[in-house]
Amino acid sequence: ERLIKTFELRADAAVHPLVRSLLGIVTSKRSNLCVSADVSSCTELLTLAQQVGPHICLLKTHVDTLPDFSDSVAQQLRSVAQQHNFLLFEDSKFVDIGATVARQWERRGAWADIVTVVPIAGDGLLTAIAQAALDNSKKGVILVAEMSSDGALRSAEYQEMCRAAAKRFPHLVMGFVSQSSISQSPWLLQLSPGVSVSASGDALGQRYVSPECSVGERGADVIIVGRGVTTSSDPAAAAANYQQLAYSAYLERVKR
Ligand code: S5P
C-alpha cells in the first residue's frame, strides 16, 4: 500500500507533523534525496550544504566526526536549511538505556530535526527523547531497522521490534532506515543508504545499489547518498543527478 501511494496522499495520512513537512518539501522541490555530509570539517559541511541545498530534502550528518562542531555551526546550518528548504538529520544511532540517551540527545541530537535510533534496548530511549524534546511535533526519530553493509543483521524478530516501536511512538517515529520494506503503513517513511550510480561497494563492506533499484525495487522513499556526492568534483551536479534519478524512480513506482 505504501509503495503505490503518492507522497501527496501519504502526507495527508501522516500522523507525525514532520512526516507531513518532509513530504511537502519532497514534492515541492521534486527531491527525495538525502545527502550524507560525511566531510572532515565544519567549513566543508557548510560549503557542501550550500552546494547541494537546492537538490535535497534532507541533509544527514555525523557531528561526532567533526572536531569543530558547535552551537554556532548548528545555527549556521539551520539558516542554510531554511534558505534552501530542507531538514537536518543527525545520524546519531542512539543505542543505550533511556537515561544515557537523554544526555546524548541533549549533546548531539537536540540541534537537529531528526535523529536515528537503534531500538534494541526497549522503549526507554524513545521515551527519553520524547520527554527531552520540548515540542515533539518538531522532532522526529528514524529507526535503523536494516543496514546496507556486508554481514548486517537480517532478523525478522528485530524488524518486528522496529515496527512495534513505531506503533507505540507514532508521534515520534517517522520511519525506518532499511534496505527493504519494513512496513506497509503509508505514514511511515523508508530511507535507504547504500546508493551509488558508479560503485558497487567500498573496501570496508559497504554495498551499493542504483537509485532506480533502491526506490523502484527495494521500496525506498528517500535515498541517502554520501560519497557519490561528496567525492564528486562537482557536488551540486552530482546531487542534481541523484535527485533526478530518485524522483523519476518514485514517479515510475506510483504509476504502476
Ligand atoms: O545501513 C546503513 C545505515 C546508514 S545510516 N548504511 C549506511 O551507509 N548508513 C549511512 O549512510 C553511513 O553511516 C553513511 O553516513 C551513509 C552512506 O554513505 P556512502 O558514502 O556509503 O554513500
UniProtKB/TrEMBL annotation:
Q: Does the keyword ATP-binding apply?
A: no
Give the residues the record marks as binding substrate. D38, K60, S148, Q206, G226, R227
GO terms in the biological process aspect are: 'de novo' pyrimidine nucleobase biosynthetic process; 'de novo' UMP biosynthetic process
The Enzyme Commission number assigned here is 2.4.2.10, 4.1.1.23
What's a single GO MF annotation on this record?
orotate phosphoribosyltransferase activity
The catalytic residues are D91, K93, D96
Pathway listed for it?
Pyrimidine metabolism; UMP biosynthesis via de novo pathway; UMP from orotate: step 2/2; Pyrimidine metabolism; UMP biosynthesis via de novo pathway; UMP from orotate: step 1/2
The UniProt keywords, alphabetically, are: Decarboxylase, Glycosyltransferase, Lyase, Multifunctional enzyme, Pyrimidine biosynthesis, Transferase
Tell me the ranges covered by the Orotidine 5'-phosphate decarboxylase domain, including all copies. 32-242
The answer to whether the entry has keyword Ligase is: no
Q: Member of which family?
A: In the N-terminal section; belongs to the purine/pyrimidine phosphoribosyltransferase family.
Protein's name in the database:
Uridine 5'-monophosphate synthase
Q: Which organism is it from?
A: Hyalella azteca
Q: What taxonomic lineage is listed for the species of origin?
A: Eukaryota, Metazoa, Ecdysozoa, Arthropoda, Crustacea
Covered range within the whole protein? 219 to 474 of 475
